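Hi support team,

I submitted a single chain yesterday and got back a structure, but I'm not sure I'm reading the token output correctly. Could someone confirm the output below corresponds to the sequence I sent? I've pasted both exactly as they appear in my results page.

Thanks,
R.
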Amino acid sequence: MLELYTAGTHNGIRANIALAESGLGYKVTKLNLSAGDQRQPAYLAINPAGRIPALVDPTGPGGPTTLSQSGAIMMYVANKSGKLWPASDSGKIAALQWLMFTCTDAAPWSGVYQQSMMMMPEKVEANIEYTKQRLMRWFGEADVQLGKTQFLAGEVSLPDFALFPVANQRKALIEEAGLKNVLRWWNQMSARPGVQKGLSEST
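Hi R., thanks for writing in. Yes, this is the structure output for that exact sequence:
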């Protein structure tokens, strides 16, 4: 059985949702990041970087496999389950593009926005506004795509599960910006049992 070490961050939630949607057997170990669980020797033995998520597969290719990085975990789960990717090669290419969009553009800027509001020593309004506008640029791109397709890569797949935790946290900003296609997509995603299960297990 797969074991996911996670917490209620974008990265942790998206890996958890992928597992919940995959149909694979798994269990969740939730770490308390505020208490420093990720820095304890037992966890550092699994992921020396001390970050979440991490996935342990006792029956991985060639033997027990340990993996970190949420995007890599999502792709591993998709390949192991035979699910979560679109059926066609062109769909898989589109899904990979939008998965990278989420992991390298949308999610990091959401994190920077959070830090600019909550964690930076000096909370400069101009900096907060700048990071907000950068974040909304990525949601704007997703809105254009979702005006053409029901899901980011045409059919529901990895990038949708990756973007959902970010959109879920920033729903008020999305509503404020009037991004109707993202909101339509959010309603569809939030109604999925797998999404609900993955979200509840991590948070």
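A quick pointer for reading it: The longest helix spans residues 89-118. Let us know if anything else looks off.

Best,
Support desk
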